[in-house]
Structures are given as structure tokens and as C-alpha cells.
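User: Predict the complex with P-hydroxybenzoic acid.
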Amino acid sequence: MKRRQLIQVCSLTAVALAAPLALAQSAPFKIGLVLPMTGQQASTGRQIEAAARLYMAQNGDTVAGRKIELIVKDDTSLPDVTKRLAQELIVNDKVDVLAGMGITPSAMATAPLATQSKTPLVVMAAATSSITNASPYIVRSSFTLPQVSVAMGDWAPKNGIKSVVTLVSDYGPGNDAEKYFSERFALNGGKVIEKLRVPLRNPDFAPFLQKVRDAKPDALFVFVPSGAGAAVMKQFVERGMDKAGIKLIATGDVTDDDQLNDMGDGALGVVTTHHYSADHNSALNKKFVDAFQKANKGMRPNFMGVGGYDGMRIIYEALKSTKGKGGGDALLAGMKGQVFESPRGEVLIDAQTRDIVQDVYLRKVEKKNGQLYNVEFDVIKAVKDPGKEK
Ligand code: PHB
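Assistant: Here is the predicted structure with P-hydroxybenzoic acid placed in the model:
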């Protein structure tokens, strides 16, 4: 073989060998986003999808040479459907990452699939403490109910609230909220008179609120999932609970930014604890809220939206850390330990627990420029999930 021919053969071989690698590098990176887009939890799906698309619009749809493909599926917030969709996304679509998970039962149903297939699952909404224990492939960008409920157990007794009735949705996050609020409140000398639980599906709050009226506590502590807060607020006011001297205190799920502005002046003065308010005073948050509203016909982002936005950030940065190569374990390693500024404030993905460490705020509903907001008035810095400390 002549020297020139040899060089040609060699370079052709090099191209042939490199081709599959180049192909793999340029194959799209698929994110399977499973969300409740219809049904009782539809606002969660709408918020997270909008936030994920905003993140992509702002940060580009190519990361480390890989085109990002977002596949959105509606699980109608039924865990059996979540599981089936996740299975299809893993087997048929060969997604690189699963994400979303509007409610705890959906995340729990999907956890074993993430483990078996070694697919990272970024939980952007669901917030029962134990979710991250259900699979070593779960990373959470939302929050936990213990994280925000303990803060209320500290605040209430210092602010003249000595007796409380609790009212929570009867499933994982409600049970967490009830337990962690009550324990801390009692530790601080408060008395929990009664613990009430309402069904998650189609709840009727009226008979429960009547019980609360009869018990006459200083305050009613509430957790209901995002989307159900307006109904509680309406009935609380209609039944004249506030006029009867019963205060409403809650986790921020109740005074949800997605609905707050439509709740009316009855919501004024309600104190809640949570990790995100659209009113959070930072340059980054103002930019986020403006861009989100501009892209979504004025819709105000809520804490679910922020969970989706930050979840995308976690995925993008993990893919960068693998230089575009991906792979379940490598991506997971790139997700653990991320520290960054979120629209909610500084956050950390705890490498040990894969859960989010974040500031928790005390907020009061106030009117600003004619609109209702959760206005932050105090902060507890860098709160880890108390559910992991036992
Ligand atoms: C949950 O199901 O984990 C969940 C849903 C909505 C919330 C909080 C927790 O606002």
C-alpha cells in the first residue's frame, strides 16, 4: 500500500470508529416530565410545564452538545397512570431522566422503576419527607412538609397562639404536616386540641370547619395540597371563623400564589410558612417572575413553578458535569451537592439525602399595588428536612 493510500485508510477507519461516539453524543437527551395536566392537581402540571419551558427558553435547548427533548405526559394525578407512563418513557422512549411527580402517591409509584432502570427521577412537586428514601435515584427540587411545618410550630406559640386544631389532607404530606407541626407546637408549650383529616379527593371542608368552630381554638393550622387552598379559605371566611376569633395559620400550600389573588380580602393577614413567595425580594426572583408572567399570559409563578424551574437547572448542570455523556449514575452524581441561587434563595441538594436544603420564610398575606401577596417578614436559614434527622 502506498503511503498516501495508507493514510487514507487510517483516517477512514478513524472516522468509522468515531462515528458511533459522535452519534451518541449528538443523540437527543430526553427528559420525561410526568405531571397532572388535568384533574384536581392540574395547576401543578401547568405551573411546572411552564417553568420547565421557560428554563429551556432562557438557557438554550442544547447542553454539552446534546439537544434537550422534553416529553410531557399527563398522569391526571392517578398514581397507576404515573407508573404506566413512566414505564413507557423508560422502555419505549429511553428517557435519560424522569421528572415531575405532582403528588406523593405518583412519586412513590414511580420510585421502584427509577431504581430498577437506574434512571434519575427529579421530584419537582411532591413533598412527603419519605419520598427520597423510596429510591437512591430520586433527587428533590421541591420541599418537604416537615421542613416548613416546624417553623410554624415555633412561630405560633410566640405570637399568642396557645391552642390549635389541625386540619390536613389525609395522605403523606398531610400526615407529615400534622406530625411535625404538632410535635414542635407541643414542645413549645402549645396545646393541640384536635387533629382532623379530610380526604384528598373532592374534600368537603364544611363539617370539619364546624367542628373547629365548636372547639374554639386560638388558631386552625391547615395543610391542603396546591390547588385546594382557595376552597378552604372561602369556607373559613363564609363560616365566620375569623370573626369568631379563630386565626388561620398554614403551610404556604394554602395561600398558593397560583390562586391567592383570587381568594379575596378574607385572606389578608393569614400567616404561613413556606420556601417560596412570588414576592420574594431578590433580583433573580424579580427577573424570574417577570419572564414567567410574560411567557404565560400574566400567570403568577407559585412554589410548584419554582420546583420545576430549579429541577431543570439540576438536570442541565448534571448533564454538563458528564460533558454530555449522561448515564444514570453519572447524572445522579452530578445532581448531588449542587449549590445555587434559586428564585426562592440559596439552595443545596444534600449529597447524602438527595433532598433540598433551603431557607424557610414566615409570610403574611398583604395587599401590594392592589394585589394579594405572601409578604416575607422573617427567615430561618438553610433548613434541612427534619424528617431525615430521626
Ligand atoms: C404531595 O402530594 O406531596 C403534595 C402535593 C401538593 C402540595 C404539597 C405536597 O402542595
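The two ends are 73 Å apart (CA to CA).
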